[in-house]
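Students often ask why we bother encoding 3D structure as a string. The short answer is that it lets us treat folding as translation between two languages. Here is a chain of 506 residues written in the first language.
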Amino acid sequence: MRDKGMIGEARADTAGRARQVPSAGTSMKNPLPLLAAVSAAFTLIHLALIAPGLGLGWDESVYISQVSPQAPAAFFSAPRARGITYLVAPLTALTTSITALRLYLAVLAGCGLFLALWAWRRLLPAPVLGAAGGLFAGLWITMFYASQAMPNLWVAYGALAAVGCFLRAARDPGDRWAGAGLAAGVAFAALMRPTDAVWLALPLAVASVVMRARQRGLLLLALAAGLAAGCAEWIVEAYVSYRGLAARLDRASEIQGRLGWYFSVDDHVRALDGRTLCRPCDVPWSYPAAALWFFALTLLVAAGVRAAVRDGRHRTELVLATAVGAALAAPYLFTVGYAAPRFLLPAYALLALPVAYGLVRACRPRPRGRRIVVGLVAVALIAHLAIQYKLVDSTADRVRRDTADLGHVAAELRSLGVRPPCVVSGVESIRVAFRAGCASRQPSGPNRSITPGELVEAALHQPVAILVADGDRPPSYARMWPAHPLPDLGNRTGLRAYVSGARPIR
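And here it is in the second language, the structure alphabet:
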């Protein structure tokens, strides 16, 4: 039985090209120049204004240490997946330069944005795709993470490409590459964050049934194959290191504060004022203007979908993009008890499509009022981008200061004889250890990777430094070790290192 919505819309697309939205954009049949320009601008702006001076963050140090010769691999906790490590491995095999890493990832991020939007080239008009790319790239979160070794932006690209390929495969059985693109997009997202890929695949599987697409079997097979291929390594590692998948999921939930029912929308709103992590998020909402777009997002998405329904075109595409975007956001908004703006990047990438459609349609030629509408949209976008730039600039500046402080701490440790092979434990141990070329080991907490006895044993053969902040006491086994003051590290003052007396064995 034919799906009237899908097949009828496909015929309308073939017969009624002249009605594409906006009419001013119908002459731009090839979206390549516009998408290439948006993607290139994204990369160049990030490299020029954001990337310089950005050192590695906590999570980046963990991911990169798995393949970098600079330091031993940091403890890899249960929630993490190795996709981003594989992505940076070709570069880390050649150099330990952070500048080279930023350049490499920024170029890949621009290419990823282009490819993810390119998957939609037969589904939406070029001006809509260009506007969606610009809106997504213009968020301070997207711009900040463009060259960071973090998985969320790459999940966003995989999700965006997967949904586009799903629609193409459902609509056109002759599109030979769409099914492969769907499987590849889901697999890529799963390699980066397996749980996100599950929330990506579920609404697509439901859509394949609801739409009664002729390609239902192929679509379900592609979804299953992509999910299995992307999650395979994570599942195998669960049985090797965690006594099974259920045990790993339970440990991951524990590390994340026990997943359950939470209302974290307000946490995400507060985090939008430039916080990379809000845990716990019992902080004041200090910059409300930073979240205005978040509150407007629902209305703008609804307006874009409504416009598509009224136009009788692109309804299926925008409804599905909205549904999958909402599915990707829901776990972070309602099951995780803290917030990080990067968690919602996959949702923002998909929701940018209906928002862009509505904005482009609002600016199409009309008998009266076009100049007013275009002017209002332009003013709103300029104000929005100005706020986003202010946020990303201040966030990057804070990271640059942390980078300098971490360098001073690592240099001081080296002057105390803490040189490879060595071990660093305590506060900020992962970031400091990576810079000092040491192993980071913790005897307690979510990154527990050594026992106190093993740490004491290690101190007999190599330098071990226990980092303690002001007001904290060292563990009992290190209280007799010499204490050395260290430079302040951001808001951590009174930092000191308790260093064992051993020197490296050469």
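Translate back mentally: The radius of gyration is 25 Å. Keep this in mind for the problem set.
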